[in-house]
Amino acid sequence: MNTYRVHLLLFAASFLLLCAGNLHAQPGPGDDDWNEDWTLDSLDPDDFDFDTEQIYHLSRGWFPTPSKGASLSLSKDVFYSDVHDRTTGLRTAALKSTTEPFDWHNPYACGLFDYFFDEGLTGGLFGGCEERTILKVNSDEATDERYPRSSFSEWGLRFLYHLPFPAVLRAEGAYRSVQGMIFSEDTSRSYLSLEGVPRSFREITAVHHSQHVLSGAIGLQIPIYGIFFDSDFGEIGSYYYLYGGVGADYGVATKTIQYAQIADAKDQLRYHNGQDTVTVMLESNTPGINRLRTSIEGAMGWNFTAEFFVFGFEAFISVPTTSLVTDGEWKEYYAGLRFNIGYQWGTRARSK
To answer: Is residue 216 domain-resident?
Structure first.
């Protein structure tokens, strides 16, 4: 018999002796400690020495009250956000005068898919809106220069403070890049065609106004439905909300570009520069622009908290109460989607 088998037999014998000793030490039916009537129902939970978890706050359902805490988050627009200009019959000294007043309505005769292609979503492979295509000098070929469009982008910092009733105090600051557009269409002009016949054409003037804006807002975020739970185990919250507040924007830097463009008859007419488009105005920090403007802020969204972590997503709108120009009514509405992610502190569980 080799050494390996000897060691195996000795280990097995030792294990059997240990088991026999333990069995002999266990109480049996003849011992005083034996309980013949032992059942699961006879167990008393109070006999177990477990530390009970303390619940500091629990509120759920409609209009729940937030648990104690505060948070600081970074917010960013995502998926969709844009500027929606609103003005009618605008004449202002901030812009070059035109035959017809400015309006928010886009007069270019372009279909939905034309704009889809024109905004670069297909890389320009399938053309776009021909009326607003910018042509090369004395050529029918389009330039690489893209026609301006409205846009909105935002980076923000948001502070939330949970109040002892169904409301959350919200204050935030942000940097915004804003680009809006208004138009003027003149159909009164005509030209003499190659056949010697007078023909009318459409001339469209477009104003592209871009701004770098510092923004601030304060208001209340009302939990509509959800749950707030704070205990020794931890803190968690999930709720849908409505937000309302007041805001202010300050235009740190602005630039206004005013174009005139031949919308049709591009194969017959050109401006003095040999193109179908001419820049009428290019000015930075344009006089007559209201740099400081106020607004009403609104949002509807969902917020989630877990210990130190905060995440949220919302649809927002900013309704202006101040005109963009000092001598007329030109307002810019901001709308879109944005998310926030950040750090939470001050919960009862974490402050122990």
So the answer is: yes
Please state the three-class secondary structure of 202-221 as a single string: CEEEEEEEEEEEEEEEEEEE
Distance between CA atoms of residues 159 and 344, nearest Å:
10
Q: Which residue spans within the chain are E strands per DSSP?
A: 55-62, 70-86, 151-162, 168-186, 190-192, 198-200, 203-231, 234-262, 277-284, 292-306, 309-320, 331-345
- Categorize the per-residue pLDDT at 32 as very low, low, confident or very high, splitting at 50, 70 and 90: very low
Angstrom distance (rounded) from CA 119 to CA 331: 24
Q: Which ranges of the chain would DSSP assign to H, the alpha helix?
A: 3-25, 112-116
Contact partners, residue 164, CB within 8 Å, separation at least 6: 65
CB burial class (10 A; 0-12, 13-18, 19+) of residue 133? buried
CB 306 within 8 A of CB 235: yes
pLDDT in tens, 48-62: 443 556 778 889 999
CA 18 – CA 39 distance, rounded (Å) = 29
Q: pLDDT, tens digit, for every residue of 308-325? A: 999 999 999 999 999 999
Residue 291 lies inside a defined structural domain of this protein? yes
Q: Count of residues for the chain?
A: 352
In the structure, what pLDDT confidence band is assigned to residue 25 with cuts at 50, 70 and 90? very low
C-alpha span between 84 and 65 (Å, rounded): 36
Cα end-to-end distance, the chain, whole Å: 65
In a domain, 65, yes or no: yes
Does residue 204 contact residue 160 with C-beta atoms inside 8 Å?
no
Domain count, the chain: 1
pLDDT score for 77: 96
pLDDT tens readout for residues 39-88: 545 545 455 443 556 778 889 999 999 998 999 999 999 999 999 999 99
* Distance of alpha carbon 109 from the chain centroid: 31
Sequence-distant (≥ 6) Cβ neighbours of residue 119 within 8 angstroms:
128, 149
> What is the span of the domain harbouring residue 84?
57-345
Task: Answer yes or no: is 12 within a domain.
Answer: no
